[in-house]
Amino acid sequence: MIGAIWKPWFVRRPGQLVRRVWRGLVVRPAGPVVVRLPWRVGLEVDPRETIGRAIWTTGIYDLAVSEALWRLTRPGDTVVDAGANIGYMTGLLAVRAGTAGRVLAFEPHPAVCERLRGNVARLSVHPNAAPVEVRQTGLSREAATATLLAGAAEAANDGLAYIGSGDGIAIRTERLDDVVGDGTVGVLKLDVEGHEPAVLAGAARLLGRRGIRCVVFEDHTGPGSQVMRVFAAAGYRVYALGWRMRGPVLADPNGPPVCRPYEAPNYLAVTDPVDTEAVMRRPAWELFG
Q1: Where are the strands (E) in 140-265, listed by range?
Q2: Mind listing the pLDDT tens digit for each residue in 120-145?
Q3: Rounded CA gap, 105 and 117, in Å?
Q4: Residue 250, helix vs strand vs coil
Q5: What's the pLDDT tens digit per position in 26-38?
Q6: Are 83 and 190 in contact (CB under 8 A)?
Q7: Residue 15 — pLDDT band, cuts 50, 70, 90?
Q8: How far is CA 58 from CA 67, 185, 277, 278, in A?
Q9: What is residue 25's predicted lDDT score, i.e. its pLDDT?
Q10: Are 287 and 72 in contact (CB under 8 A)?
Q11: pLDDT in tens, 226-281
Q12: What angle is formed at CA 31 by the lines to CA 27 and CA 35, rounded to 5 degrees?
């Protein structure tokens, strides 16, 4: 029992523990509910889905990634959420970038994008949130059309769909190089169900001039993957992301895994390792305030 509650999201937010206990005693809602997140905005989630259930019960999702985005995003940054889903990370990025910043949120799935737009609208109550541009497109190696495939798992996982070939949903794709142009990106959150190499191919100019300061990305292959090779060739330093009770963990990606067995392996690629380590190795959970 102690192990179940000895988690940062409960220790730092005791009220969330009370809500967790109460919600364990009641029937799970049969539809969407709005959950208040640590950065003081509401997010509509569906507790019947995997991501929605995690946020409804703990008030947080993907702790190490959330903390990394919170720490690494600077006021005034242009930030990109590639694979924005229902907008959990989008809202976090908007609050951190502030009114002088800008968020580009890419979500090609029509139904999921509609939910994303609703959650972006909820950001209007936050006085310091950056404007968010929702783009119902996918990022890829070229501006074209593509097919979004959705299997049985999607219904339980908030739009777990991927770009592939076959019968699916016709979508448009864009190149990040074209969208950003001569600008820069402070933080790119990249979670596109295996399409990451194509997204980076469409950002070759940005990477070549190191116009993206930090990239937080999911990679199930890990060391030696195509994504890792792209970052190495562009001169980025890559870390594995994890967490312990006292704060986030940066580790050698070639070492033992630092993520929990139930978590997807996430990594951080940066242009300035010295600054990144100074920011990420402060012993605390800053996103909880």
Answers
A1: 144-150, 161-164, 169-174, 185-190, 212-218, 237-244, 247-251
A2: 999 988 999 999 999 999 999 999 99
A3: 10
A4: strand
A5: 767 888 999 999 9
A6: yes
A7: confident
A8: 15, 30, 28, 28
A9: 66
A10: no
A11: 999 999 999 999 999 999 999 999 999 999 999 988 889 999 999 999 999 999 99
A12: 85
Question: Rounded to 5 degrees, what angle do the CA atoms 215, 73, 204 make?
Answer: 30
Written as six digits, the tokens of 198 are 């194509």
Backbone angles phi, psi at 186, to 5 degrees: -70, -50
- For residues 6-33, one letter each, b for 16 or more C-beta atoms within 10 angstroms of the residue's C-beta and e for the rest, the string is ebbbbeebeebbebbeebeeeeeeeebb
Q: Nearest to residue 264, comparing CAs of 202, 216, 230, 228? A: 216
Give CA separation, 23 vs 17, 57, 88, 134, 230, in Å.
Answer: 10, 7, 21, 32, 44
Spatial separation of the C-alpha atoms in residues 232 and 213, rounded to whole Å: 14
Mean local confidence (pLDDT), 63-74: 98
Question: Which residue, 238, 225, 221, is CA-closest to 276?
Answer: 238
pLDDT for 261 equals 87
Number of C-beta neighbours around residue 178 at 10 A:
12
The CA-CA-CA angle for residues 87, 9, 41, to 5°, reads 35
Q: At what angle do helices 88-97 and 110-122 cross, to 10 degrees?
A: 40
Question: Which residues on neighbouring strands pair with residue 72, listed in sequence order?
Answer: none
Is the pTM of the predicted complex or chain greater than 0.85? yes
- CA–CA distance, 184 with 59 (Å, rounded to integer): 32
Strand partners, 161: 150
Asked whether the beta carbons of 261 and 254 are under 8 A apart, the reply is no
Contact 253, 223 (CB under 8 A): yes
Residue 249: both structure tokens together:
């963990």
Computed on alpha carbons and rounded to an integer, the radius of gyration of the chain in Å comes to: 18
Residue 156, both tokens: 């339980």
